[in-house]
Every structure is written in structure tokens, then in C-alpha cells.
Prior knowledge:
Order of helices and strands: EEEHEEEEEEEEH
Radius of gyration: 15 Å
Number of strands: 11
Bound molecules: zinc ion
Number of domains: 1
Shape: globular
Distance between the termini: 33 Å
Helix content: 10-25%
CATH architecture: Beta Complex
CATH topology: Metal Binding Protein, Guanine Nucleotide Exchange Factor, Chain A
Strand content: 35-45%
CATH class: Mainly Beta
Amino acid sequence: xxxxxxxxxxxxxxxxxxxxxxxxxQEFSACHCSMCRRWTGGxxxxxxxxxxxxxxxxxxxxxxxxxxxxxCFCMACGxxxxxxxxxxxxxxxxxQAFDNPSEFTFASQIFVDEKPSSYSFSNTTRxxxxxxxxxxxxxxxxx
Length: 143
Ligand SMILES: [Zn+2]
Ligand SMILES: [Zn+2]
């Protein structure tokens, strides 16, 4: 694969929120942190995007969940749309909101230290604990 980013489209359950995302790597990660599990009702499977363009007047709700991150959802149907860092450096869009989720490879799992012992994925992935992931994300931010 070349380093070129390509566009992928998706939408929420009701279709009021639609997006066009620019993606460098066709892969996704699973986040096992307690916030993502409460927020999504499952495990947050997300695609790191270089940019995310929303349709005009998308009813996007934004919930600030930490000092550095916010969670975006459709205010009409409640679909989990994306997590993004407040500085705009990271946008992680829900894999399941994309029109073609099977085009992405399961590459990594984060916050594995917060994963309940009651389930696990058998895929071979790169795994990171919460502290390791936060160190990686904040290292990229200029603050
Ligand atoms: Zn919706
Ligand atoms: Zn999480």
C-alpha cells in the first residue's frame, strides 16, 4: 500500500449524521476502557482518521469525557460516531458506522488493563495498556 490516504464514507443509524473520512491505514483498534464500554454498550472498535468531514447540519452531540478528549454521537438516534482529542490531532471514528467495515483489519487493542476478564478477542493484535496509550497520544500533542 502507498502512504496515500483514501476516503471512506459512513453514517449513523438514522442517517442524519454522515461523514467522509480520510484514512491512512485501513485498520481499526478496540478500546476496552471503562468509558468506551459504557458509551458504546460494547467495545469501541475505532478507525484512526486523518480528517473527518460531516454533512451540513449534522446533529452531532459532543460530550467532554476527559481533559483531552470528547465523544461525538448522533443527537437523533444516539449512535456512537467518534472519539476525538480536543486539540484535533486524533479522530477515532466508530468502525461500525462505516459503510464497509470489513475493509479494515483488526490491528490493535488499547486499555487492555481495563478489559473485564469476562471476554476476550482471539485476533492477534498489538496491545497497549491505558498508560502506554495516553503516553503515545500526549507525546504527539504540542502542549
Ligand atoms: Zn442518527
Ligand atoms: Zn476507550
